[in-house]
Amino acid sequence: MTEFAAPTRSTDASAPRGGDRPVFTGHHTHLWGFLLAGWLISYADRTVTGPVISWMIENKAGFIGDAANPATLGGLIGSMFFTGYMLTQYAGGRLGDRYGHREMLVVSLLWAGLLTLVSGVTGGLIGFVVARVLTGLGEGVFYSNDRVLVIAHTPRARRTIGLGVVLSGLSIGLTVGIVATPHLIDWGGDWGMGGGAWRMPLFVFGVVSLLVAAATWAYFRARGDRPLRLGPPALRLVAYSVPAAVAIVALFLLADEFGWPDWLTAVGSGVLFLAMVTLVIRGIVRTGRSAQLLGRDVWLICLSFVAVMWNLWFFSFWSVQIVAESAHSSLGAAALTAAFNAGAGILGFPVGGWIADRRVRAGKGRKPLAVICAAVHTVLAVAFGVSLLGDGEPSLLLLGAILFCSGLFFNALQPIVHSILGDLAAEEHRGSLFGLFNLVAEIGAVASPVVSGVLRDATGSWAPGVFTAAGVMAVSVVLYGMVRERIPGTAAA
């Protein structure tokens, strides 16, 4: 285990390019810990929306309680959040390449903490949507910058397990968000918040987000040869985010004013996505980076990961409600059962990375692991859907067991894919590469909550939504099989 020395002229991915630049000088395992904490609170912040809406539906409270189609409206709110999250993916990577990836991580955590607090302060539907859209826009820049830091500052032999260990914060955050939210709402009730008790988890997670941001800032500041300058990247992010937020909120307001069906509003989010992808691709072509960022294998991985985001946010957003309705259990019991899926990532993420690194050291590819993980998750998702079709109530033990087993393979898949993708581009382009990757993949997160909610309201069952998620993942199995992997230290596979 060695510290990272600072060269005179750095190509470090955590600093702006050009001239003498500082590099991160901390130990890579310490870096993993802080990035894990960032993932944890970021995912707790975004996961809280699903359980909060489930509580509103169950208690007929807040701005969801009186809705004619509460599941559809709740899913639409989730989709609005991820529309914002999606639209800053590429911009976040580009800003990180220019201003520094450390700076963008701290800005993202500060932004998310402040806007999560604002989400709790708002009282009406429109105000809540605006706050969640803005939260998503800020959180969207975390992903591409985090991935680049891990790859740049982790020894090659431990790169994939590093990606997995850090990403396990996602599962911990999902678990915390799912399990803690009902208890925090109850705590809000004990404090006399009544029908506004749903605000309490947003207040708690917002404060913790700010504390994590302060700790991360102090850590990075002490391990570089210059202070972190947060102002310039933050202002550029604001300049980028304001038009995006206006477009998203305008879409929601128009739908509310003219009484559009919620599914049509979701289609509008898809149009924004296509417009953004078009602008990004045009910019890449104009700057002469097509060979690095728009290759065949990059597109195969980007498109296949749509299935990951679809399944991630189908189960993360709706699993509590699915278990509660299917097993007729309390919200707390349903949250504990649903947490088996999220909690499986605490084991699945690092184990998937560890196995992939062993294969790379042996000169073998990681692609077969990706295919196997995606295929097994598909089969188990189908089994989960079948368990919802019976006349009787499925047992919580059965639902929890299926969610846990599918979660192991599903979460192991993700660092494997990230590692394969990271080897497809040079270091100076990785921020942009991961930004493009998650921009494309996030269409799954945008579509999944609202499509699943529409299917539930139309059929009266969650099974069609589960089978849809399984079908999308089955397509990704084929796409992963077509990827030509570059194995570090060997010829391209």
TrEMBL record:
<feature type="transmembrane region" description="Helical">
    <location>
        <begin position="297"/>
        <end position="319"/>
    </location>
</feature>
<keyword id="KW-0472">Membrane</keyword>
<dbReference type="InterPro" id="IPR036259">
    <property type="entry name" value="MFS_trans_sf"/>
</dbReference>
<keyword id="KW-0812">Transmembrane</keyword>
<feature type="transmembrane region" description="Helical">
    <location>
        <begin position="108"/>
        <end position="134"/>
    </location>
</feature>
<feature type="transmembrane region" description="Helical">
    <location>
        <begin position="331"/>
        <end position="356"/>
    </location>
</feature>
<feature type="domain" description="Major facilitator superfamily (MFS) profile">
    <location>
        <begin position="31"/>
        <end position="488"/>
    </location>
</feature>
<dbReference type="InterPro" id="IPR020846">
    <property type="entry name" value="MFS_dom"/>
</dbReference>
<feature type="transmembrane region" description="Helical">
    <location>
        <begin position="161"/>
        <end position="180"/>
    </location>
</feature>
<feature type="transmembrane region" description="Helical">
    <location>
        <begin position="461"/>
        <end position="483"/>
    </location>
</feature>
<feature type="transmembrane region" description="Helical">
    <location>
        <begin position="395"/>
        <end position="413"/>
    </location>
</feature>
<protein>
    <submittedName>
        <fullName>MFS transporter</fullName>
    </submittedName>
</protein>
<keyword id="KW-1133">Transmembrane helix</keyword>
<dbReference type="InterPro" id="IPR050382">
    <property type="entry name" value="MFS_Na/Anion_cotransporter"/>
</dbReference>
<feature type="transmembrane region" description="Helical">
    <location>
        <begin position="234"/>
        <end position="254"/>
    </location>
</feature>
<dbReference type="InterPro" id="IPR011701">
    <property type="entry name" value="MFS"/>
</dbReference>
<feature type="transmembrane region" description="Helical">
    <location>
        <begin position="67"/>
        <end position="88"/>
    </location>
</feature>
<feature type="transmembrane region" description="Helical">
    <location>
        <begin position="368"/>
        <end position="389"/>
    </location>
</feature>
<feature type="transmembrane region" description="Helical">
    <location>
        <begin position="266"/>
        <end position="285"/>
    </location>
</feature>
<feature type="transmembrane region" description="Helical">
    <location>
        <begin position="433"/>
        <end position="455"/>
    </location>
</feature>
<feature type="transmembrane region" description="Helical">
    <location>
        <begin position="200"/>
        <end position="222"/>
    </location>
</feature>
<dbReference type="Pfam" id="PF07690">
    <property type="entry name" value="MFS_1"/>
</dbReference>
